[in-house]
Amino acid sequence: MGDAPSERRTSPPTMTHTRKDIKLDLERHERLGFDEAVFCSAKTTAHLTHILDQVAGRQLRLLLTRLSNQQLNELPEAHRTRIDYEPISRTGYFGVPHDLVGEPRVAVIAAGTSDVYVSREAARTLRYYGQPNVEITDVGVAGLWRLLERVDEIRRMPVVIAVAGMDAALPTVIGGLVPSVVIGVPTSVGYGVASGGESALRAMLASCAPGLVVMNIDNGYGAACAALRILRAIGST
Amino acid sequence: MGDAPSERRTSPPTMTHTRKDIKLDLERHERLGFDEAVFCSAKTTAHLTHILDQVAGRQLRLLLTRLSNQQLNELPEAHRTRIDYEPISRTGYFGVPHDLVGEPRVAVIAAGTSDVYVSREAARTLRYYGQPNVEITDVGVAGLWRLLERVDEIRRMPVVIAVAGMDAALPTVIGGLVPSVVIGVPTSVGYGVASGGESALRAMLASCAPGLVVMNIDNGYGAACAALRILRAIGST
Amino acid sequence: MGDAPSERRTSPPTMTHTRKDIKLDLERHERLGFDEAVFCSAKTTAHLTHILDQVAGRQLRLLLTRLSNQQLNELPEAHRTRIDYEPISRTGYFGVPHDLVGEPRVAVIAAGTSDVYVSREAARTLRYYGQPNVEITDVGVAGLWRLLERVDEIRRMPVVIAVAGMDAALPTVIGGLVPSVVIGVPTSVGYGVASGGESALRAMLASCAPGLVVMNIDNGYGAACAALRILRAIGST
Amino acid sequence: MGDAPSERRTSPPTMTHTRKDIKLDLERHERLGFDEAVFCSAKTTAHLTHILDQVAGRQLRLLLTRLSNQQLNELPEAHRTRIDYEPISRTGYFGVPHDLVGEPRVAVIAAGTSDVYVSREAARTLRYYGQPNVEITDVGVAGLWRLLERVDEIRRMPVVIAVAGMDAALPTVIGGLVPSVVIGVPTSVGYGVASGGESALRAMLASCAPGLVVMNIDNGYGAACAALRILRAIGST
Amino acid sequence: MGDAPSERRTSPPTMTHTRKDIKLDLERHERLGFDEAVFCSAKTTAHLTHILDQVAGRQLRLLLTRLSNQQLNELPEAHRTRIDYEPISRTGYFGVPHDLVGEPRVAVIAAGTSDVYVSREAARTLRYYGQPNVEITDVGVAGLWRLLERVDEIRRMPVVIAVAGMDAALPTVIGGLVPSVVIGVPTSVGYGVASGGESALRAMLASCAPGLVVMNIDNGYGAACAALRILRAIGST
Amino acid sequence: MGDAPSERRTSPPTMTHTRKDIKLDLERHERLGFDEAVFCSAKTTAHLTHILDQVAGRQLRLLLTRLSNQQLNELPEAHRTRIDYEPISRTGYFGVPHDLVGEPRVAVIAAGTSDVYVSREAARTLRYYGQPNVEITDVGVAGLWRLLERVDEIRRMPVVIAVAGMDAALPTVIGGLVPSVVIGVPTSVGYGVASGGESALRAMLASCAPGLVVMNIDNGYGAACAALRILRAIGST
Amino acid sequence: MGDAPSERRTSPPTMTHTRKDIKLDLERHERLGFDEAVFCSAKTTAHLTHILDQVAGRQLRLLLTRLSNQQLNELPEAHRTRIDYEPISRTGYFGVPHDLVGEPRVAVIAAGTSDVYVSREAARTLRYYGQPNVEITDVGVAGLWRLLERVDEIRRMPVVIAVAGMDAALPTVIGGLVPSVVIGVPTSVGYGVASGGESALRAMLASCAPGLVVMNIDNGYGAACAALRILRAIGST
Amino acid sequence: MGDAPSERRTSPPTMTHTRKDIKLDLERHERLGFDEAVFCSAKTTAHLTHILDQVAGRQLRLLLTRLSNQQLNELPEAHRTRIDYEPISRTGYFGVPHDLVGEPRVAVIAAGTSDVYVSREAARTLRYYGQPNVEITDVGVAGLWRLLERVDEIRRMPVVIAVAGMDAALPTVIGGLVPSVVIGVPTSVGYGVASGGESALRAMLASCAPGLVVMNIDNGYGAACAALRILRAIGST
Fold it and tell me: Which residues have CB under 8 Å from H104's CB, separation 6+?
């Protein structure tokens, strides 16, 4: 405690989250090949509104990830009605997404129904950037024949995003069956030792399938970005 | 952000969790000897309703695990009233369970009252599949004589499911007293170092009792399935 | 430091590991159905010699686990030549093992060659107790067809011991393919996140295959004991 | 202990690691696009010799990883002299590697000199499979300008393998500078919190750079396999 | 349970958190050079009110950290209106802060917008103690040029507080670019492996930048105190 | 799912937590020297009511720990009014506690105000069992002279319970200053690395003060029981 | 690297561990009731010799812990022959220990033979300070009757040191059987999840036995010091 | 394995660690204010020799850290004799260190004798860069008065490096006694929970002393660099 404060100031210098805190990365597209997305998880309504104001003013589009239903509902109506929202993945397209180009080249596979919140985020991100893709669900390896029925379909895709929680054996099995690039995404589904996705993550990283690459837990968005980098590398050569 | 989005689409392509995301494993019974169960924990009301619609339509039964009171109450009344619900274990029988067959052959033992939410899940799962069993509670080893009084009763069962949290010494002591198959199930009960069940799990895995087998934390359902596999192995030989 | 020690004692009371420290569990057989085994890992030559003296004097047999080559070579010749030693599993039979009884009823499966040190320990323990078994190696799920070729053979066994390190997907896949009791044993093989077997252990505990039971890392001996408990439960009913 | 063992058998049934334990995956090439490699780390001389006998007999080539100097020296001379060994990466080519094809398309970057044991493993694996590549070393971000001097060179490669230990910031910085596919490989270099590579691994997985993919700690071989999957996906389209 | 309790007491000796539990450290200023601050996080309204009563009675000032909006609103109005509150950092000045002295000598840098809750706490603490400072936001290393534009400005400050979550590469890069004292503060922002700030903390501690010092996760207040110690050490020599 | 369930049963066999699940340890007093206490944390109102019914019926007393305000308020009024409740420690005396006997022989010391929820639990437990004690608060070692002023008072107590969170240095310092038995209790206070009490626990276990003994995180009740065991050992000799 | 070093100095200022680094705590006895002991584990021969020189010069006694056989053999003969060494506990008495006083008042119990290295350290420390004690070995709870045979003997001791590794259930069972002070000491014995003693430690801390106190892993010396504090507290009242 | 390797090449292209792998940071001095140091821990003799050749050729000086005795002895004699080596800290000065300038301004404090390997590294690094300093040893807080005797001396230094392992309470106590900048360095000394320094690290990060800054475990070199940054910040203003 200080020693002799005078009286109370009349206009307190209370600071708030102002424009200068937010700096959208408008040059990212030319540098990396895809626009900035907004990770909404810890952002306030004021925060999100300010971002959408900027984007709307410039006639731009924007991908919103981890946007909760509650966050969506608290947005000003003018913004909310411009958002194409998908509740399982909690993704939103602000403005019209990029045009779809070409045939599907990515398989987005979820081991179980409860992993779809992640695989759908990947699929929606790919769709936003104009990349057609195929979603396959409920092919966990504890019921192996469900996967085997789809292997030929999977093998035709140059990139496979394999989403799984708990024991996370799916990407390993796929990685041993097809020569495609396999991107493993662990999910935080489960309880006990599985909870949080740490076990699934470690199982994928320790996989015996050669060349399996791995994303952070629940990072469907990142997996889609990785797929886009790969497909653009293909396109650029 | 993209560069030149056109105007807003009139009918947004919002996706929802549709039928194709859910694929019940109807052949599991003949393959593994028991039907599929539905782990309700992370599922929405829509999700659960869709599953029950399918089952009801085919005149099937279903075991529901980790079904919260709130989830139960949000189900359509037609489904809700068909469910035999037990709140401590959070299990529900949709339709009539399998007929009970034979004498009790499994002892389901909980170290303390606060472990019953797991032991009851095991007992209810066994009951669903028609397997009679004996529940024994409050025989933790910090009050050893409570266990010793019941040892003869326990020894008569070919399979023992021993549920315990915190120090989890119960399965070790039982495993040294009886020749039965002992399945240890750690619980997430407790606080501080015990919290989450990790200590109980590790203590069971490190047990000095030869041949003690272990399940994931709180996995009463899995312990019952293991017991069923064992009893069927017995039956098949 | 004390204040005024007198002169040096002539005969120092140096203690050593004496007989009274070692108490073999000779009644275990009737209580649990199998004899005591000696875990040699942290024991000195003097220690082991003392144990073998006791056993030899009573004309008994003994199973030795985690007996290193060096430990074996440092034993007195009279003991060493009575030991049937297998170097990969580091197991030794002191005296003649129990007579083999009946047909093989346990499949002992190792995902890869480097997991054999554990699966062989299980197989040797089973053999010691007179239980015929079938060893199957190099059927890791990253090369799935190798496993699928053997599934029918595996399904005929009431008990399956599935040993795997790294991603440890093998027991999950088997547990979804056959109705037998599946005992998962994680191994400490690997490096990085896999190292120590913690990832394999967690993947097995979190398995989606219903009723999969799990042992401590590298505990092939324990898996065999569990199999014996199961087979005796079968026999006793 | 058993009750009445008879006398010592004359020919002990000591088992050793025999042929049947080792099953080389000769069909992997057509299935996945690259041959099997042998991870030598936990293998004995007898083990390795047996594998090389098989390969030599069929006039095949083989990639050996984690082959220590000591292991190399203990091999039979006929085998040892056929191995092109590189001590930093501990890799060996048994037989002549695949012919180099095309221009370099992979940049293999090590943050510091002490990370070269991993980046060289990746480079040597790529070379073995005939893929030219460019090695860049000592461009850690604590001395940022060293990296910035090389950015244009890096950007020309469709695939970048970025190897780093400790804070592991290198892949994040590269992933924000170039649109290529960036594969992060954490190393186990360092001490204290860095030791074992766990910190580096987590920092890479948590990276802010969109689409960065990650391998297990020290897994240079796996990173090369991922790069090959990517380049073949490019080639196949 | 005891054996023979008599009847119920009329006035129960219920204790509450009374004055004697709270002992403000009024001499800290002369001993350490700055007054005590109150960490409000786990404190009740009664608790906080009691503290503010004491301070108000002595005409002192006080810094409040981790003061939630709800806690603020539950304070008596007389106290609440004397508090200059900043919601992002959750800091409050009770009474007038120390007079600003001299030029800015600390740069407070946040890697991303979502790290501002911590950097603002540092900036507000510095301001409270009369230390002018410069806040810089959204200069994460995944978009490197944003940082490079500000390097000259940063280099002019003798002390730099670098706040970052997730991969936490920012302090390392700054520590390699400027000779100032760099204080790294990890944030608990993120999900999956990043969650809780443990990964960011470890990455900073393992940094390759020589002489980088680190604070506990989210400890913006502590970083400001460290900066004040440094600047006073400068002043005292 | 089963194959042919018949119609819905009229009276579902829904089980609830019944009497047989709860078995109070009424003989504990003569065996261990203190009665059973009820850890209320995970118990339902029905649960607690059932226990209190039993105790009230037998005219016994009972110590309730971790009893939340909400749990208290949901109890039947007849029970609630018999409880002497202390909100900080969340302890309740059901019935009149044991008579106080003798002089204070335990010092219960909390490093900071926010640790009082644990030290008060210890003090209240001691009081319940009739053991007078002295509470000392806000003597954390970051303000060392506060502790030094009280050292003589502390030294007069044969048993010292030292409660501290975060760095948990208090028990070490006390253990080096007085010859009393020092029982360290870590608290879960704090954030970042401190959160959960794991750091405080480990610091106490690793203490350089010889003979410091440690309890689980937040276990004030256990520390009091340990003190009682010690004082009774003294009394019995 | 600096800019212009001159020539090589003739007498390098190489420092070594000199007297001033070592400051024996000679007043500890009057302050805490027992002398300083020397933890030899990381000390060099020079280090130890210097300490013993000091002690020998003053005609004092000293307890040496964690003194390896190799360290012992490298000491100067004059010192070595004055040491009464016990190899299992790796303890040495330099000079004559304190005179034994009174009857045994401490039971030192080891769950298994492989835990004796810790229980013996406790017993030897007690002996050094003149405290008679009773060692009991091989009473692990997996063979419960071995413990039950000794319970009456144990109950007569006011203090019990219970040493156990792996599942560490022994102290919990004892703490529920006798009213004595029970000090649990986890050992680092075991493999897999048990390895390092972390599981044993956590199981003891989470024990259901009220008032069980715990030491660091393998800290037999500390347990003895705790016992001495307790017995002196008894003596002083 | 490949398909048709030709014959063995006569001159294998075995690569070794060549010049291009090593890039000394010669401009670091002007950028950061101190020269590059070489962390020798994982470097081979060839590696170190190559570095010293470069430095010797340019008439430069160099600081070597973590240089083992064995590494030193394997260097070419011409290099070895130019190194002023200190074995406890494992540091070497190649060439003459910077001239000492001014009075001591850093106190380097070690809690115990076994922490000196780290504090000496800090002291030697400071000496190398010409910064006089004062070493203080054996002032751990378990014997508090040893520290209190030195407090005035410590308070005169603007920077304090406080090195401690195990409970690591020393920096907290110092940070509450003096207004200097306190840099905590945890050491990896100890066993059980202390082992590896993780507990000490966490205790320091969670310290209650405001403004305590922390380094990686055992990082005495880094602490010295931080001190130098601080002292230069002082000098530059």
Answer: H132, H133, H134, H157
